[in-house]
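Exercise 7b. Backbone tokens:
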């Protein structure tokens, strides 16, 4: 049985990143993800007291997660998003979903 996969990415914005620039880059990234096969759902959250973000993406399969990850490194929209992030702060992990409830968007 195949299970969905969750990708969790923790990161900080680069010190020079402006909020408006990040919002625009995130909107473009979301459009990119909306057009990727196998992307089920995404949430981006910010810690209230700090400049720490968590980006959570649900994928249909690990193959989808890997394919989109590879495309991320090749796509100009994604690279504009990545330029706004402190690279040393990035922690990316994948998890196999063992239990979930339906998400009503």
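Sequence design result:
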């Amino acid at each position: 049985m195949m299970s969905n996969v969750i990708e969790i990415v923790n990161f900080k914005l680069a010190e020079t990143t402006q909020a408006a620039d990040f919002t625009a880059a995130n909107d473009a990234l979301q459009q990119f993800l909306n057009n990727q096969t196998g992307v089920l759902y995404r949430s981006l959250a910010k810690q209230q007291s700090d400049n720490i973000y968590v980006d959570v993406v649900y994928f249909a399969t690990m193959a989808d997660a890997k394919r989109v990850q590879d495309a991320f490194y090749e796509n100009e929209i994604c690279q504009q998003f990545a330029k706004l992030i402190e690279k040393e702060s990035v922690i990316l992990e994948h998890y196999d979903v063992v239990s979930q409830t339906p998400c009503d968007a």
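Instructor comment: The mean pLDDT is 93. The radius of gyration is 14 Å.
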